[in-house]
Amino acid sequence: MGICNVTPDSFSDGGLAFDEKDARARVDTLLREGADIVDIGGESTRPGAAPVSAKVQLDRVRSVVRYAVEKADAAGACVTIDTASPEVARACLGEGACAVNDVSCLREDALADEICRAGAALILMHARGTQAEMPGFSDYRGTYDDVVKDVVSEWRAAAERAMRRGVPHSALLMDPGLGFAKKATQSAELLRRLSDVVRAVEVPVVIGASRKSFLNHVTVVVDPDAGPEARIGASIGAAIHAAAHGASIVRVHDVRATRQALEIVRQLDA
């Protein structure tokens, strides 16, 4: 899954695809580099980001989604919309997106109604609270008794709400939400014990570790003060680990490099 942020303020690439021409070029690049899924969002989900209205999100992404669907269909890929807004979901699913990537852990039950109505899939990410409330640099001050068990339990509660609204179990995917309401050590623990997460949720699991700040704290090799673009090596390592431990999808900024790494590992392990 390749990331296309049509935003001015995303944590790693904010502004690079904000103009529609640049967003279309980003879609073309992701598909050319081998993305199976193009994930388009019009609202930053970085820590501390202010909420963006449905109207503004749609002004940013609707034509980009339409363009991406056409290009993805020709390439044998698909498009997802990264939003927690039922209104944005409805419009983008109507343009041909196949799924909604919801980082809010179903803050609005009405989002599930739109998924059900469109016969789409729902990538449901574990989170606690909104981005505006979330501290940066993995400096979360909440607690978990056991981060894997607690994340799975809280995710299941949201999944059950979605299913009560009519979303079939077969349409659900799970994202443990690395970096969202988690300390760096908690995100690393989720990634380390990913096999346990996969077994527990019994749906495809999506991992989004790409360029996130928790990676700075996983190894002493990485400069603790390094910015997002200095975390590509750690991001690729996380993607390889995730794929080896049961993740069905890795959500990444660097499609070509990640795909190369995954392919060489598959070839050497064959």
What general form does the structure show?
globular
**Proportion of residues in extended strands:** 5-15%
Distance between termini?
Answer: 23 Å
Count of alpha and pi helical runs: 9
With strands numbered from the N-terminus, the spatial order across the biggest sheet is: 1-2-3-4-5-6
Structure in words:
With 270 residues, the protein is an alpha/beta fold. It has a single domain, classed as Dihydropteroate synthase-like (TIM Barrel, Alpha-Beta Barrel), CATH 3.20.20. It has nine helices and eight strands. It has helices at 20-32, 54-75, 86-94, 110-118, 147-164, 184-192, 194-201, 232-244, 255-269, and strands spanning 2-5, 37-41, 78-82, 99-102, 121-125, 172-175, 206-207, 249-250. The protein has a six-stranded parallel sheet with strand order 1-2-3-4-5-6. Strands 7-8 form a two-stranded parallel sheet. Helix 3 (86-94) runs parallel beside helix 4. The mean pLDDT is 91.
